[in-house]
Design brief:
The protein is an alpha+beta fold. It is about 40% helix and about 20% strand. The chain is built from 20 helices and 22 strands. The strands form 4 sheets. Strands 13, 14, 15, 16, 17, 18, 19 and 22 form an 8-stranded mixed β-sheet that branches. Strands 3, 4, 5, 6, 7, 8 and 9 form a 7-stranded mixed β-sheet that branches. Strand 13 and strand 14 form a beta hairpin. Helix 1 packs across helix 9, helix 4 crosses helix 8 and helix 10 runs parallel beside helix 12. Bound molecules: adenosine monophosphate.
Length: about 600
Amino acid sequence: MRFADLAEAYERLEATPKRLEMRAILVELIRPLRPPELPRVLYLSQGMLRPEYEGVELGVADSLARRAVAAATGAEEAAVARRTKETGDLGSTTGELLGQVRRLEEKEPLTVASVYAELTRVAEAKGEGSQETKVRILTDLLVRAAPLEGKYLVRFVLGTLRVGVREMTILDALAVAFGDGSKATRTRIEAAFNLSSDLGLVAGVLVEHGVDGLASVGLEVGRPIRPMLAEREKNLAAVLERMGGRCALEYKYDGLRVQAHIPRHGPVRLFSRRLEEISAQFPELVTELPEAVRDAPAIVEGECVPVDLDTGDIQPFQEVSRRRGRKHDLAKAQEEIPVCLFAFDVLLAGGEPVYERPFPERRARLERLVRPTERVKLAVQRVVSDEESATRFFEEAIAAGGEGVMAKSLEPGSAYRAGARGYWWIKYKREYTVGLSDSIDGAVVGAFQGRGRRAGRYGAFLLAVYDPGRDRFESFCKVGSGFDDAALAEMPRRLAKFATEERPASVDTELTPDRWMRPGLVLEVRGAELTLSPIHRAALGRVRAGAGLALRFPRFTGRVRDDKSATEATTSAELLKMYRSQVRQETRSEADGEAGAP
Ligand code: AMP
């Protein structure tokens, strides 16, 4: 196929916003094509050389493309830049400039095959001298290009090919060009795409083996599956109703979705929700996954969240996002911001595809497959069939650092639906977080043995507020964050005189620390917000029966309140007031949101 034909098709595609017209243009374009040309045209039309997950990049910056355009057209680079300011697009400028060049001799026309091969060389040029190589290849291509070809070549290399063909439109076109165009055919093509994330591959199989041949497109380790997505509901009662009265609830971890591909031999590969490879960002997961996953080859999905390895506590998501895209200083990042993967689904286990099995079977399989390690764990799950247990589980999830819950259908039809959003998974989270500006003074009523670097000493402390009416110390958090080594080192000395074998009668909590403490030492902490909790007992039952108040993401400020005795700690009533003022703020901002929503 001549590249000119492709450029012309792009011109027509760009001119129409109508999906049906686009489909017709695409059908006409691809119908005569066969592999390997067909996949190439499909990749090119989406601005890529290879399926997206391979992450092939041309690495051509504006300035570099401008140099090539100048060299190919004989224009001054500054003039190219000036004109581009006016047109707003280097591609159009290139078209114009090429139109002014007198072509002395008839050049051999560009073909899709030759353009594709040259662009691949551009992408492959790496390291020293690669910039020059890229400019040279581009210049050579542009010298041979007609104006329209030049326009789209330049847009392609800059990643600004605006022909607007979405994956869904291409799937439509494939169904018409190589099938009977029916909905059933379209569905089967899409299913193959969802499993392989590779339109070129799907098109190739379709042309060579027909619609029935698509059944052979399955999972492959190293090739990401398009993720299953969740619907949302407004409250837990609605969630339960949707699920037919019974479902599995899981913590909804707030982190990065990770699809882990564990081959029998060779390195683990990790993909993001957008199917980008992110293995390089989480080397510790790459090394630990083969240890945790017993039966490779396997494909496991989970959420990657920052944790405090010393306490095992989940940290706020912002921590892990700092690691995204961070290529340098990885060793440092690993140490500063350790992550943990909470596995929640399995698609392939021991080489056997299990994604079509109902969810309860997949979960059982996942539990057999994963042997939890320090950094690889199972998502916490509970099957519920009434609103009260659901609410309790939700509060537990929030208190543990989750952002809500994921409800999962247990029905026979609960297969993993790659690339689809549906009510088989329903998310329910609180949409707001109100910052807690006040600090809280908590009395230490217990201590927990440290882990990791803190092994052999206390790593976290159970804090309580005081209720003068009942003369009780009611727990509201377990805090391990915010202590530097020095602060931690002096805690045993500070606490020694309060340590006791039994739970002091004045202490009210559902947690059992490794060491009980008589209330005496007061620590100042801050946190993200106050939430309801089934395990903490502060202001128990005052907001909701059976629930106490808990501080989310607690952090020691570094201030030991030596000036305060335990009974001078923050009171339960004060904590309740802080909680209520949060609730008021949140109602107001919700109302504001509605009124001011665009
Ligand atoms: P959202 O991004 O708000 O649409 O919520 C869906 C996302 O929640 C998924 O893509 C996952 O990244 C994440 N997630 C966290 N915990 C779970 C879980 N237990 N099961 C499924 N998805 C989860």
